Structure formats: C-alpha cells, structure tokens
Amino acid sequence: MVCAGRPPKYERPLKGSAVDAVRVRIRKLLRETPTMPATVIVERIGWQRGRTILKERVVRELGPACLPVDPVSRTTYRPGEPAQCDLWFSEADIPLGYG
User: How far, in Å, CA of 95 to CA of 99, rounded?
Assistant: First the structure.
C-alpha cells in the first residue's frame, strides 16, 4: 500500500514460530512451576528442534507472563517522578566563566 508522502516499502505477513505450536503446553508447565528452566521444558514437551528458539521465547515472553506478582514489591513509579541527583564536589578549584 502506497501512502502519500512516503516511499513504497516491502512488507509481508509474519509467518510465526515453531514454538507457537507448543505454546499452550509450555504455559501449562510454567503455571505449575513458574521458574522451570527452558532445558527442562524441552525434555518435558519432547522438543525436537533447536533449543535456542524455544529458550529465547520462554525467557523473553512466556516465562515472565507466568510469574506471580511479587507481594513485597509495592513501589510504583509514575512518569516523571523518579530522579537521581548525584552531588560531587571537586577538591580542585575549577575556573568557571571568563577570567
């Protein structure tokens, strides 16, 4: 599709991943044990492909989604609130401005 003011761009639909076929089984395992390592998941679901694809997906997306909320962490930050001010006082006199 050509939009006014923009050059044409090649786009194609996403094909998905081999992990999509076993995503439901992975989530079931992670609901039972949220900290289960990807290597154990590989064994439990009988994964026959490369482990890197599955491990990256579990670490990046599926694992964090299944972790329970930390009951101790109640700190909330709204945009613009947090700030860090580091004060540093030099022992040497540093001339500022003209002269």
Answer: 8
Contact 41, 62 (CB under 8 A): no
Measured distance CA(43)–CA(41) in Å, rounded: 5
Residue 35 lies in a domain: yes
In a domain, 74, yes or no: no
| Residue corresponding to tokens 């964090």 | 64
C-beta neighbour count of 37 within 10 angstroms? 13
Q: Which of 79, 71, 68, 69 is nearest to 31 (CA)?
A: 68
Residue 97 covered by a domain: no
Q: Which tens digit of pLDDT belongs to each residue from 35-81?
A: 888 888 889 889 888 888 888 888 888 877 777 777 777 777 788 88
What's the number of domains the chain is made of? 1
